[in-house]
Every structure is written in structure tokens, then in C-alpha cells.
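Q: What does the assembly look like in three dimensions?
Context provided by user:
Components: two
Sequences:
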Amino acid sequence: MGSLSFIGLGLNDEKGISIEGLEEARRADLAFAEFYTNTVPNLNIERLERLIGKKITVVTRTQLEDESGKDIVTAAEKGRTVLFVPGDPMVATTHVSLRLLIHKKGIDSRIIHASSITSAICGATGLQSYKFGKSITIPNSLPLPNSVLTTLTDNLDRGLHTLLFLDIIPSSNNQLTVDQALTRIQSAKPGFENRLAIGVARLGSPDEIVKASKVRKLIKEDFGRPPHSVVVPGKLHFMEIETLKTFCGALDSDLGDNS
Amino acid sequence: MGSLSFIGLGLNDEKGISIEGLEEARRADLAFAEFYTNTVPNLNIERLERLIGKKITVVTRTQLEDESGKDIVTAAEKGRTVLFVPGDPMVATTHVSLRLLIHKKGIDSRIIHASSITSAICGATGLQSYKFGKSITIPNSLPLPNSVLTTLTDNLDRGLHTLLFLDIIPSSNNQLTVDQALTRIQSAKPGFENRLAIGVARLGSPDEIVKASKVRKLIKEDFGRPPHSVVVPGKLHFMEIETLKTFCGALDSDLGDNS
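A: Here is the predicted structure of the complete assembly.
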């Protein structure tokens, strides 16, 4: 009887896996990876293969979801199997479905955690973890769902920060950008252009960009390659203000209602 | 001129650091670690020293905060310096203060991320990331602050899940337990004993415990060594219910208002 370990790749490249993940992958009989639930901007599959000493089969969304991850399930029934996933495993519902399926077949599964944007965003911005409210995904399709604006307003009313995940565009293997996401909200929420927001690109990579300013200025910035995300801060503590000014380029005139 | 890298240790032991963190620590001139902002239950400092090929100076809260991290700042002024911290760096305000201090002295700093309870909790419970509201710390001191109950009620009214961090008890180098935290809330919030809650212990370790049931039953469970944490779920999606039943021992009779 085999097993399946979900190994998180973290944020930037193949060096984001933990030592525990590396050891498990080296011990495995078969290795798979998926890169469609998120972007790992500097990952190189050949380097990852050299690191773990074996070939990796990259699976598409269709292979993993529509065929119920058939190849992975078959592999996990027979031998020690690993599946590399962007960020920390199980944030995507697909992985949860696969884990449930594996369990029903009586196969052991485990999760080897890695860094995720949901905690790394605190380090990058200096915003405090316990001050984030419900997060939101900005979908690629238009119009913007009402729930996006309701959640954002609700968090702001409570003084809470909001992390916006930007949708993957399946056709192009691309992702919404900071300016696209902000423009969509701006056209639906009067006055939003004068709020403070933070644009984040390639968090955890050497060319990470984290920039805080008013929405109308942020929309004009070029953040480069994906993945991008956005934070709309609520009420700011003085130390949060200091980090936004020190590390994220915020000016006093950007702070407005947040301070 | 030197530099300071904050390296996340992740959740369980020294194998929670990323390959990037390992390489940076091996290149460093001096290495420090702090273990007072959280517990890394199976970490062994000698094993970590062997892994990175150098001695590690463990700093106390007093050394890091009251003396403004003097030794670390001096080391970082001169050479390549690393500071190991539990979980993902910068979730604790102490690290933010130190990073600001380092920056004011013109010293480069960076963050090497690792797994954190804030994302790993999704994998462990199957609860979806975007359905968590503001998180709360249950303090060691009594009485329970009003803000704890207000936030919990606010999240529940919105159908959101709440992650409860349990305070470190500085005197004993220990941490509040699942039953202590639940008992404190129960005595302040009528009807809480019949709600569904999830107790979590040593997340990411081989002897991890994740147990979902009604508060009154959960209070009687022994979760063993720290660190512990608690989730109070809001409205549950059918797949969340399935994972709680499959992986966390929840019974239909535990679900009550959540389903």
C-alpha cells in the first residue's frame, strides 16, 4: 500500500520547499506537480527534478479534476507518491477533494506545509496578522460580484485589512494584475481612488515589489510579471504606518483615513 | 557592511525551514534564534546547528526587546547574520520593531518565509481560507477582554470561521491549552458549550491532533504538549463538513447550527 504527500512549494521557486518536503520527495517512488492553482514565478522544473533526484509529471487542471486525479490515485495506491503544489497545500479546494478521494480508497495522506501569501503578506507589508478580516478573490469575469464590495466595505467599517487574491486567467495561463483589480473595484465603489492600497508582486522573490499609495497612483504603476495581489488596509497602528512608510514607499499624504 | 535575514522555522522542527533558509544560514557569519514568540515543539537546537554548520545563540525576550536586540544589531552591522524565528517571520511585532531598527542603521534585511498556523490551519481542518474572519488571541490574564467575545460574535454573525491563538505563559515557558481557552470563553458566552469547535495541537508534527466536536466534549479531551490552538467554525460548506467528519472526527450531532 502506498501513500500521498502534498508538498507545498512556497512562493517563489523550488527552494521554497521545506527540508522535510525535500526528504519526502527524495524517498518517493513517483512525483507529480500542478502549477495551475497559482503561479510560482521563478520555479524551474528541471532544477526541482535534479534536487529530488527523479522525474516529475506535471498535471493539468483537467487531469487532476475531471479525471479525478486518476494517475495520481493509481500511483498512490501502489507506492510512495508526492504531489507538489504552489504555496501551502489545501488552500485550493481541488487538493481537498483529492485528499478525500485518496482517504476513501484507504490510502494514507499527509500535508507538508510551506509558506503562503496569507501569512507572508504580513512580513512584506508590516500589517499585523490579527487585523485582517475575510479575504476576497477578484474574479476575472465581469461584472464584479456584489459580495466583493460588501466584504470590502464590511472589513473597512470594522477597521480591518483586506487581502485580495487575483484570479488566474485559465486561457492565457496568466493572472489579473494590480491595476486591473483596482480599476474594477474603483469603477464600482465611488471614492475608492483616494483610499490607501498596497500592490504586491512576486512576494518572496528577489524582485518582489510591495508598494503602498493611493489607489489612483497605484493604478499607474507597473508591477511586472505575476503573481500579483492587493491589500486594502483598514485602521493602521503607528508601527504599521512606520513599516508602510519605511519599506513600502507610503507618503503621509497617502494615509488619509487610515491613520 | 552586514545584513540580517529573518528565517522562518515553520511549525514543527528544524526541517520546517525552506531550502533557501538553509542555504542562507550556511552562508551566514553568525546565527541567532528566538523561541519565545511561539513553540516549535520538536525542534532540537543541536540538530539545527549541525544542519547549518555553525553555533546558534538563543536570545531571550529581554535580550531581543529591552536591549533592542543589541547583540543581533551589532552582528548584523559587521557581517552576514541570520535570526531563526518560529513559524513565518514578522507575525510577531517584535520582529517588525527589530527590522525597523536595522533599517534605520542602514543595514539590509530580508525575510525568508516558512509555514505558519494561519495558512496550515486550512490544510489541517479542511476549512477554506477565504471564510476566516479576524483572528483572536486568548490572553493568559483574566478576565477575558470584551473584544474577544465581540470579534467572535461578529465573525459568527457573518458566518465566518475564527482562529484563536492561545497566549504563551511567559513564567512557565508554557502555553494556554485548548480546554483552558474554551473554558474561558464558555464562562463568558452563554450557549457556547453547544457550539462546534476544533482543537488543534502540534500542527504539522507527526503527532498532530485535530479534533472537531461540541465545546462541552472538546473541553474533556487531552491534547498533550503545546502548541495548541482553536478554531470556532462559522457556516460550513458541504466539503468542509466532509473533511471535518473524515479527518477530524466530527459527528453529525456535533454540527448543529453550522451546517
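Follow-up: The radius of gyration of chain A is 20 Å.
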